[in-house]
Amino acid sequence: MGLAAIKDSSNIQLTDNGQLRHFLSIEGLPKALLTEILDTADSFISMEQQSVKKVPLLRGKTVVNLFFESSTRTRTTFELAAKRLSADVLNLNISTSATSKGETLLDTLKNLEAMASDMFVVRHSQSGAAHFIAEKVTPNIAIINAGDGRHAHPTQAMLDTLTVRRHKGDFKQLSVAIVGDILHSRVARSLIQAFTTLGVPDLRLIAPNTLLPVNVDALGLRVFNRMADGLKDVDVVIMLRLQYERMQTALLPSQHEFYQLYGLTRDKLKYAKPDAIVMHPGPINRGVEISSDVADGKQSVILDQVSNGIAVRMAVMSMTMGGQMTQQSDSLKRLGDEP
Amino acid sequence: MCEESPVALEEVNALQEIIFKKLTAYLQIKAIDNPIVIGIHTGGVWLAKKLHAQLSQKGIVSEPLGTLDISFYRDDFTRVGLNPKVKPSDFPVPTEGRHVVLVDDVLMSGRTIRAAMNVLFEYGRPASITLVTLLDLNAAELPIKADITGQQLNLERNQRVKLTGPENLKLTIKTITTQAS
């Protein structure tokens, strides 16, 4: 299914009274809701300092990690987030399961539904997969998109915006640069939507033209081909990984050349503000997008992103579960009203 | 829509004095030594601060004040979802084996106290819990009672009472005129 086939997700993600019931993409979500996700995540972060890091919000609920694309880091943080909410977690590594024996996606889902699952966390190589699943699965199961093709990675965007907010405060005055393989990056797409909705006034993309989306001008952002220009006085630098697995043609002369022109080194970082923060969704390729001394340096907040990721996923999981349950009890009440 | 209506309600200062006196007598009778004072966010924390200061001055408590948030332990998660404005619970001293004085502003259905006790038990087994509230509305839906209370108050079904603060603590009774009760 192509990107064009993905419908506006706003209706399907929200309950009748605007609560989150699926988390599929940033697109279509109002600023107030994104802010609520950040605030909720903040409260889970403060919980981290306590000796008992578990709360009973999802007790008795079954969360299934449905990863059709490999990922250790994202799957582990979702698992940890679910367990901190007291949920039971199933990890399905689809490449070794029945799908490789030819079972269709829908049959896999129906089987899982039959096992009384309450939430699916889905990562898939096809853009639109999470939406597809949300439309096809029984209505009371919450679907969380852990990354679908090139389309979206909304939890990553939220943990990145949370990291920015925790270090820089308000979004209203910020200058943010996203650097690297923007064309193939679902993280970039979700980040652009998130920063735009949250009101970042100066959002910049820095990349060679071969790694920029075709319709980049339509996004209304400032686009740069040179780091020296694009990084000038920014508050936040977000480096992206080269997505080789999604490249279908030769888009770069060499990794070495990419690093010379677009790698974030200490010298290039000097163009940014002295207190600028350096971010990367991971996994980092030292010497390709970023030098080791910057990745490990004092401006890097890459490890904060990882711990913020658990809190953001706890927030999204508890909010969608709450939305699903509120919707169910509302429909039961309506049924009760009928004669 | 809420309207304020005048009711015979004691001033917060007066209620706090009543509570302090009753509590010191109670602790003595029960031979409770050096309890840990814990306030429930948000109104309970405001009240607990003064109570803790008074008790510290008299040498009745020596440990710092603890605070507790019940947002993750509420029983209405399925009905109203999650409240994003959660404050962290903070227990400077372990509660294992210690006597606890739990402070809240208003005892109504008792569900806040039920949730607070669940939080407390996650962190250890207290020797005892003494519940102190400014007001008792005689509206408990669970078998939970305040050990010490400043004033008993019977409200109409469409009335609620609210403590405002953190400075100049004030109790106000409001009448709710919406459908939801």
Work out the helix count of chain B.
4
**N- to C-terminal distance of chain A:** 44 Å
The tally of domains of chain A stands at: 2
Terminal Cα span of chain B: 12 Å
Q: In oligomeric terms, what are we looking at?
A: heterodimer
Name of the level-1 CATH class of the largest domain in chain A: Alpha Beta
Low-pLDDT residue spans of chain A: 1-7
Helix content of chain A: 25-40%
At the fourth level of CATH, the homologous superfamily of the largest domain in chain A is Aspartate/ornithine carbamoyltransferase
Strand order of the largest sheet of chain B: 3-2-4-5-6
Our estimate of the beta-strand percent of chain B is 25-35%
The largest sheet of chain B is: 5 strands, parallel
CATH architecture of chain B: 3-Layer(aba) Sandwich
- Average residue pLDDT of chain B: 89
What is the residue-mean pLDDT of chain A, rounded to a whole number?
88
Task: Write a structural description.
The complex is a heterodimer of chains A (339) and B (181). Chain A has twelve helices and nine strands. Chain A has helices spanning 10-13, 31-47, 73-84, 105-114, 129-136, 154-168, 186-198, 227-230, 255-262, 266-269, 292-295, 302-337; strands at 62-67, 88-93, 119-124, 142-148, 175-179, 202-206, 222-224, 236-239, 277-279. A five-stranded parallel beta sheet of chain A has the order 7-6-5-8-9. Chain A has a four-stranded parallel beta sheet with strand order 2-1-3-4, sandwiched between helices. Chain A folds into two domains: 3-151 and 306-325, Rossmann fold, CATH 3.40.50; 154-301, 3-Layer(aba) Sandwich (Rossmann fold), CATH 3.40.50. Chain A is globular, with a radius of gyration of 20 Å. Mean pLDDT of chain A is 88; it is low at 1-7. Chain A starts with 9 loop residues before the first helix and ends with a helix. The longest helix of chain A is centred in the C-terminal third of the chain and has 36 residues, at 302-337. In chain A, helix 2 (31-47) crosses helix 12 and helix 3 (73-84) packs across helix 12. By secondary structure, chain B is of the alpha/beta class. Chain B has a single domain (2-71, 95-176), classed as Rossmann fold (3-Layer(aba) Sandwich), CATH 3.40.50. Helix content of chain B is 27%, strand content 26%. In chain B, helix 4 links the parallel strand 4 (99-107) and strand 5 (128-136). The longest helix of chain B is centred in the first third of the chain and has 18 residues, at 12-29. The N and C termini of chain B lie close together (12 Å). The model of chain B has no long low-confidence stretch (mean pLDDT 89). The A-B interface holds A 19, 36, 39-40, 43, 46-47, 49-52, 54-57, 318-319, 322-323, 325-326, 328-329 and B 71-73, 77-82, 84-89, 118, 122-123.
